[in-house]
């Protein structure tokens, strides 16, 4: 691996335990049978994709009538629900992700957000670091929700993020929880860490992740900037950010 100068983070499922999956599932009532909308289904068909693309994929795979025509209405209903849930504070930060992002910031890496969701900033401005700053303040660029010709697994969004932090793709590491995001990182020539919070280590490995962990505390930050990606020894302590 070359030396790494920047880290690009997905948001939902990586930094934040968000209500997106819940909103997609609850909004499905009236469009298709929500019984088939499992977490595994969400990860495979929705996570990491642009909203309208995800909506159409759900309706097509679950047999919703007139999927192409009704996908926009489904996406709008989901968005109204997610806006309400965010306003209510129905989300929380993953502590390991906060520590990891803060540690990379201290190590001198430039940080960028690159989620297909347009709600990233709304959540990250409400989450506080131990010193009182917002979690969003750690990031040098926020490309979340930026319109691109194709969503993940196309690398367009990640390439824009690399450009925003003035770093070549080869010197970027991407942190993702979805196979589509891992494939996008690799297609863009970037190193990829897969965070398996849902027991989906195999899916992330098969997508091409360079390292798969169940907690970002397991990633050795001290050697990361030098280009050595490895898991931390189990006995090594982790300090809060």
Automatic annotation (TrEMBL):
InterPro entries: HAD-like_sf (IPR036412), HAD-like_SPP (IPR051806), HAD-SF_hydro_IA (IPR006439), HAD_sf (IPR023214), PGP-like_dom2 (IPR023198). The keyword Phosphoprotein does not apply. Transmembrane segments: none annotated. Keywords: Hydrolase. NCBIfam families: HAD-SF-IA-v3. SUPFAM superfamilies: HAD-like. It comes from Methylorubrum rhodesianum. One of its GO terms (molecular function) is hydrolase activity. This is HAD-IA family hydrolase.
């Amino acid at each position: 691996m070359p030396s790494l100068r920047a880290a690009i983070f997905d948001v939902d499922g990586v930094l934040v335990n968000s209500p997106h999956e819940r909103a997609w599932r609850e909004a499905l009532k009236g469009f298709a049978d929500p019984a088939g909308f499992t977490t595994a289904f969400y990860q495979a068909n929705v996570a990491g994709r642009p909203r309208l693309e995800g909506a159409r994929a759900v309706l097509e795979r679950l047999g919703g009538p007139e999927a192409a025509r009704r996908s926009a209405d489904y996406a709008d209903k989901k968005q109204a629900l997610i806006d309400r849930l965010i306003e209510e504070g129905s989300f929380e930060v993953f502590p390991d992700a906060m520590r990891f992002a803060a540690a990379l910031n201290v190590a001198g890496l430039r940080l960028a957000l690159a989620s297909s969701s347009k709600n990233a900033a709304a959540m990250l401005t409400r989450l506080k670091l131990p010193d009182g700053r917002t979690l969003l303040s750690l990031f040098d660029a926020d490309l979340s929700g930026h319109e691109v010709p194709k969503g993940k697994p196309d690398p367009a969004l990640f390439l824009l993020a690399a450009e925003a932090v003035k770093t070549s793709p080869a010197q970027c590491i991407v942190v993702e929880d979805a196979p589509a995001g891992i494939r996008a990182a690799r297609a863009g020539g970037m190193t990829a860490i897969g965070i398996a919070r849902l027991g989906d280590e195999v899916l992330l490995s098969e997508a091409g992740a360079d390292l798969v962990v169940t907690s970002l505390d397991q990633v050795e930050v001290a050697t990361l900037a030098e280009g050595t990606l490895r898991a931390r020894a189990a006995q090594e302590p982790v300090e809060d950010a």
